[in-house]
Design a protein that fits this description.
Elements: E1 9-14, H1 49-69, E2 76-78, H2 80-91, H3 96-106, H4 112-126, E3 134-145, H5 152-162, E4 165-169, H6 176-186, E5 207-218, E6 229-234, E7 239-255, E8 259-266, E9 271-278, H7 284-290, H8 293-299, E10 303-312, E11 314-321, H9 323-329, E12 351-363, E13 367-379, E14 389-394, E15 399-405, E16 411-417
Helix pairs in contact: 2-3, 2-4, 4-5
């Protein structure tokens, strides 16, 4: 495919803060007053067998992605479903082998772009209704530079599946970057205040697409702050003191030859954090080698145990370039100016020139806040119940953690804490 080279760039920015998806709406504010089971009934997302298989394949993408991220031995957090949303929206502008590669990498090979759209729409519609103690905000918008036009079919799908409404602005007015950053800050409780840096923003860009999601979940069983003490955490390269939270309670728990697995639910149990603590002598990379869709499903079917839990209070942030990773995972054409096929996006030929994700998590005695911003820039270049056992779970060494929706098992965040 011959492509005529141009100077202008399309920066498609998708600010995706997951977990929990809902179209342009907020659920009830997180309350300090506990709700009764009647007031906060556990709900489920109903999936067909085909949809369950798609979730499994998309989770496989999550594990493949994080295996790449974890090659560098430092704390990191990524949102694989954020990338799914970013590429899913953009994929409606793709065609040919470029679209096929995106479908396969995300785990929607047979279902295609329509399958990604339907999955994202279902999560957008149903996920926010599951837990009144989980605060969720999401909003989508599309900014177009004057003089450029999105294709009509792309606009229709962006509205129908992602609830994104295009707005035309003059990107050279000296105000657009501030408008976009304020929009992102307003819709993420200021957790991530800058969506586009000065280096990212191009006044000759054609379009910016943004989707902002904010999550704040309160533990079903909160940690008592008076029990938090400074304790040693043995990282791979250094040992340091960290604020270690502590409680003993009945939780879902299991263990394998490789790790201890603990589930800490939020609110009414609709969302959960699963912590995978490698056994002594094992590493996170050893554990990641064993993580598959089937092993993940087994981790979702834990028994109960009285668990003596120690868990660090921490904040972690990642700024991750994705072009190399996504190319290695199987979608190199999208980044090639001569091979990329995005004829259904807008009225000029494009390829992805920038793809990165900024993600952040805050974990403390009350619960968890998590956010992620995925940025895509396109250049215009032409179990059975039993008596609970009593165990100890002391996270005093590097561990893996996953935030997921329990009824589908869909993974929203996956990270590792190394003590740095």
């Amino acid at each position: 495919m011959q492509v005529i080279m141009k100077k202008s760039m399309i920066w498609v920015t998708i600010a995706l803060m997951i977990p929990t998806m809902v179209a342009c709406s907020n659920n009830d504010e997180t309350s300090d007053e506990p709700l009764s089971n009647e007031d906060n009934e556990l709900k489920y997302i109903s999936l067909t067998r085909a949809e369950q298989e798609l979730v499994g394949e998309n989770n496989a993408f999550a594990f493949n992605l994080f295996r790449k991220v974890a090659e560098e031995p430092k704390s990191a957090i990524v949102s694989p479903i954020s990338i799914t949303y970013a590429l899913g929206m953009l994929n409606n502008g793709a065609s040919g082998e470029t679209q096929a590669e995106i479908n396969r990498v995300l785990g929607f090979g047979n279902a295609g772009a329509d399958g990604i759209n339907a999955f994202c729409q279902k999560m957008l519609t149903e996920a926010p209704t599951l837990d009144k103690l989980t605060k969720v905000m999401i909003a989508n918008t599309v900014y177009m530079n004057k003089g450029y036009q999105l294709k009509a079919d792309f606009i229709s799908k962006a509205k129908s599946y992602y609830d994104a409404e295009p707005e035309t602005r003059d990107f050279g007015d000296g105000k657009t970057r501030d408008v976009i950053n304020k929009w992102g800050s307003d819709h993420t409780e200021k957790m991530i205040e800058e969506v586009l840096t000065e280096d990212d923003f191009d006044p000759s860009a054609v379009s910016y697409l943004l989707n902002a999601i904010y999550f704040k979940g309160a533990w079903a069983e909160k940690f008592d702050k008076s029990n938090t003490k400074e304790e040693s955490f043995k990282g791979y390269s250094v040992e340091k003191k960290v604020p270690m939270m502590h409680q003993e309670h009945e939780f879902n728990y299991t263990e394998t030859d490789d790790c201890q697995a603990l589930c800490l639910p939020y609110g009414n149990n609709a969302y959960r954090m699963t912590i995978l603590l490698p056994k002594e002598g094992k590493t996170i990379n050893d554990l990641l080698k064993t993580l598959t869709t089937s092993t993940w499903q087994r981790y979702q079917q834990m028994g109960n145990a009285i668990v003596d839990v120690k868990l660090p209070r921490f904040e972690s942030q990642s700024d991750l370039g994705l072009i190399g990773i996504m190319s290695e995972l199987g979608m190199p054409r999208a980044f090639d100016p001569y091979l990329a096929e995005f004829p259904n996006f807008c009225n000029v030929p494009t390829y992805i020139g920038l793809m990165k994700q900024v993600a952040k998590i805050k974990l403390n005695e009350e619960g968890t806040e998590a956010a992620a911003i995925t940025v895509i820039g396109l250049k215009n270049e032409s179990m059975t119940p039993s008596e609970p056992q009593h165990v100890k779970f002391f996270a005093t060494r590097p561990f893996l953690y996953v935030i997921s929706e329990q009824s589908t098992g869909a993974i929203f965040f996956i990270g590792q804490f190394m003590g740095d």
